[in-house]
Amino acid sequence: MQEIDENEANKKKANELKELGTQLYKKREFQGALEHYTKAWELDNSSIVYLNNIAAVYFEMSDYPKCIETCLKSVEHGRDLRADFQLIAK
């Protein structure tokens, strides 16, 4: 039961970090957005949304090799999780 509570708490915190990252991304503060998305991914790797966001930041920063690497990681992890194909396609 405690493990479930901890997972839910991590998911909630990860979502909060993602929202903060998105605010920074919209302001074109990519380094800050990257830090928030990365922390969110570390807390909750059960969703590839965070990896997709990290890839978007690398794309905007013109770091195309990192962007491609992150996209490939996202696709692989998404398939492992049996994530919705539309999410993987992003």
Concise account of the structure shown:
With 90 residues, the chain is mainly alpha-helical.
The CATH topology label is Serine Threonine Protein Phosphatase 5, Tetratricopeptide repeat
Query: How many separate structural domains?
Result: 1
What would CATH call the homologous superfamily?
Tetratricopeptide repeat domain
Low-confidence stretches: none
Averaged pLDDT, please? Answer: 90
| CATH class assignment | Mainly Alpha
| Total helical elements | 5
State the helical fraction: over 70%
CATH architecture name: Alpha Horseshoe
Strand residues, percent: under 5%
> Number of DSSP strands?
0
Coarse morphology: flat
Instruction: Compute the separation of the termini in Å.
Output: 34 Å
Order of helices and strands: HHHHH
State the major sheet. Answer: none
Q: What structural category do the secondary elements indicate?
A: mainly alpha
- Could you tell me the radius of gyration in angstroms? 13 Å
